[in-house]
Amino acid sequence: MNPEYNIINQVKILCEQMPIRDNIVCLLNYGSVKQKEDFNDQSDLDFHLVLEKIDVETLRAIKDIFSFSNKIDLSFHSIDEIIYKDSIIFQNGNQGIYFIHVLCSSNVLIGKNIYLDIVSKLKREQMNASVIEKMRYYIWLLRRNYVFSNDLKTYKKYFIRIMKDILIIEGAIDYKNIAELNNRQVVNLFLDRFQQELDINETNIISNLISLEHIRRPEIEMYIIFFSKRVNELIWKNL
């Protein structure tokens, strides 16, 4: 039994055995651990928890359950923070309503995945707007990383995410499939979709992302400029 499975199983058992169980709408597990090719020692185990209500006792229980491992990443909401009076008001950090499609493909650990009922109500215009907003945040984050941290792992993570989001906006990836693609597939799809628009240098830049270890700091500036330009073009086109 691998360590990741042990953590997931322990979280499930704790949630089922503690009083918080009666407050849980659903507990979901998603992310790179499901995509073994993209998983590494730095990857988090992503959990998403929906509750009937969040009070003091609930907060304390959540802290007790999920704080035992630094590999755990958790988001949690009350049900009325997701849908209220038939209006979808979902927001998960910097992740807008497009992220509901990711959660639809999660492993259900407890309860029923409520997002399967919500997803049919989403409008593509709303989802595209939330994806563009997220990409703008990623560009901001990458520029900040370049000036202050220059952390290679941050570059690797967000260059791939921006490529996936561009493919979504351009219609090359369906929202339903965004959680199923690994890094290699994203890069190959991007190259195939934009091969007529990329020059030799840009093609080489993107090709290197198939193996994220090929990213080198002397090339970081080119990556940042390339993706900033692409994101700006999408913003202008969708005004």
Give me a quick take on this structure.
The protein is an alpha+beta fold and 239 residues long.
CATH class of the largest domain: Alpha Beta
The overall strand count is 6
Which runs of at least 5 residues are low in confidence (pLDDT < 50)?
none
CATH topology of the largest domain: Beta Polymerase, domain 2
Order of helices and strands: HEEHEEEHEHHHHHH
Spatial strand order of the main sheet: 3-2-1-6
Tell me, rounded to a whole number, the average pLDDT. Answer: 90
Sketch the major β-sheet. 4 strands, mixed
Structural class: alpha+beta
Query: From the 3D coordinates, which CATH architecture of the largest domain would you assign?
Result: 2-Layer Sandwich
Helix segment count?
9
Percent strand equals 5-15%
Shape: globular
Total number of domains: 2
User: Oligomer, anyone?
Assistant: single chain
- Tell me the Rg in angstroms: 19 Å
**Helicity level:** 40-55%
Distance between the termini: 51 Å
Q: Any idea what the CATH superfamily of the largest domain is called?
A: Beta Polymerase, domain 2
